[in-house]
Amino acid sequence: TKVRDYLLQLLKDKGAIHMTLIDPDKTSSEKAARIAVEAVEAGTSAIMVGGSIGVSESMTDEVVLAIKNSTNVPVILFPGTPSALSRHADAVWFMSVLNSQNPYFITGAQMQGAPIVKRYGLEALSLGYIILGSGGAVSLVSYTRPLPFEKPDVVAAYALAAEYMGFSFVYLEGGSGADPIPPIVVRTVRKTVSLPIIVGGGIREPETARELVMAGADIIVTGTLVEEVDNVKKRLHPIITAIEEGVTARKF
Ligand code: 1GP
């Protein structure tokens, strides 16, 4: 429970945190190490490694090792498939795509991955994963019917189900590079569940991050953002400052 305790303690101390997502399909191990170092300098709390398409175990290994050799923050796998697990990571988001229409993505891949997670000694962080909006590539890959932004009550009902089913975290995913989830959706989920809420997908501006945190997001994930720029620290720092401002401005 090392990584889980670390995250929960950070959330208690700071109110909300940032995580950086690195996709091994889009990022070489050299670039991953550089992104991780700069992201930590900017104040990110953990590095997530994964992607929907084209990620093998050896690619994950290389990226995870490069990050582990250059930073001290936890590396948490965000696997698109059980074959993208790395024994070198600290933990894995052990996720179930709650609104997939294909049972493989709800319990099948998890059944295949569980013995590997155990063999590799990875800490499993149970995560109810809900895909919203246009959903991006991940909704296509996981046979998911994304929940419309206009139906926050349905999103909240899924999140509450995640809480009652015993998941430790819930992830509201808008899809990588898609439109960010509107704050009102996060607000509705926040009123309904006590689980830590992770929000990601299309977050590019500090103002977006600030509003999402004000609405109740606990963990803000950005991926695409850091792939695009040379100066990762300069791009991420305002986002992380905005997260801190969002905590201060919270009204709940
Ligand atoms: C995708 O939520 C993450 O799983 C991050 O999305 O790449 O748009 O930051 P972006």
TrEMBL record:
<feature type="binding site">
    <location>
        <position position="23"/>
    </location>
    <ligand>
        <name>Mg(2+)</name>
    </ligand>
</feature>
<keyword id="KW-0443">Lipid metabolism</keyword>
<dbReference type="Pfam" id="PF01884">
    <property type="entry name" value="PcrB"/>
</dbReference>
<dbReference type="GO" id="GO:0047294">
    <property type="term" value="F:phosphoglycerol geranylgeranyltransferase activity"/>
</dbReference>
<keyword id="KW-0460">Magnesium</keyword>
<keyword id="KW-0963">Cytoplasm</keyword>
<dbReference type="GO" id="GO:0005737">
    <property type="term" value="C:cytoplasm"/>
</dbReference>
<dbReference type="InterPro" id="IPR008205">
    <property type="entry name" value="GGGP_HepGP_synthase"/>
</dbReference>
<keyword id="KW-1208">Phospholipid metabolism</keyword>
<feature type="binding site">
    <location>
        <begin position="201"/>
        <end position="202"/>
    </location>
    <ligand>
        <name>sn-glycerol 1-phosphate</name>
    </ligand>
</feature>
<comment type="function">
    <text>Prenyltransferase that catalyzes the transfer of the geranylgeranyl moiety of geranylgeranyl diphosphate (GGPP) to the C3 hydroxyl of sn-glycerol-1-phosphate (G1P). This reaction is the first ether-bond-formation step in the biosynthesis of archaeal membrane lipids.</text>
</comment>
<feature type="binding site">
    <location>
        <begin position="223"/>
        <end position="224"/>
    </location>
    <ligand>
        <name>sn-glycerol 1-phosphate</name>
    </ligand>
</feature>
<keyword id="KW-0444">Lipid biosynthesis</keyword>
<keyword id="KW-0594">Phospholipid biosynthesis</keyword>
<dbReference type="InterPro" id="IPR039074">
    <property type="entry name" value="GGGP/HepGP_synthase_I"/>
</dbReference>
<feature type="binding site">
    <location>
        <position position="52"/>
    </location>
    <ligand>
        <name>Mg(2+)</name>
    </ligand>
</feature>
<comment type="similarity">
    <text>Belongs to the GGGP/HepGP synthase family. Group II subfamily.</text>
</comment>
<dbReference type="GO" id="GO:0046474">
    <property type="term" value="P:glycerophospholipid biosynthetic process"/>
</dbReference>
<keyword id="KW-0808">Transferase</keyword>
<feature type="binding site">
    <location>
        <begin position="171"/>
        <end position="177"/>
    </location>
    <ligand>
        <name>sn-glycerol 1-phosphate</name>
    </ligand>
</feature>
<dbReference type="InterPro" id="IPR010946">
    <property type="entry name" value="GGGP_synth"/>
</dbReference>
<dbReference type="InterPro" id="IPR038597">
    <property type="entry name" value="GGGP/HepGP_synthase_sf"/>
</dbReference>
<dbReference type="GO" id="GO:0000287">
    <property type="term" value="F:magnesium ion binding"/>
</dbReference>
<keyword id="KW-0479">Metal-binding</keyword>
<dbReference type="GO" id="GO:0120536">
    <property type="term" value="F:heptaprenylglyceryl phosphate synthase activity"/>
</dbReference>
<protein>
    <recommendedName>
        <fullName>Geranylgeranylglyceryl phosphate synthase</fullName>
        <ecNumber>2.5.1.41</ecNumber>
    </recommendedName>
</protein>
<comment type="pathway">
    <text>Membrane lipid metabolism; glycerophospholipid metabolism.</text>
</comment>
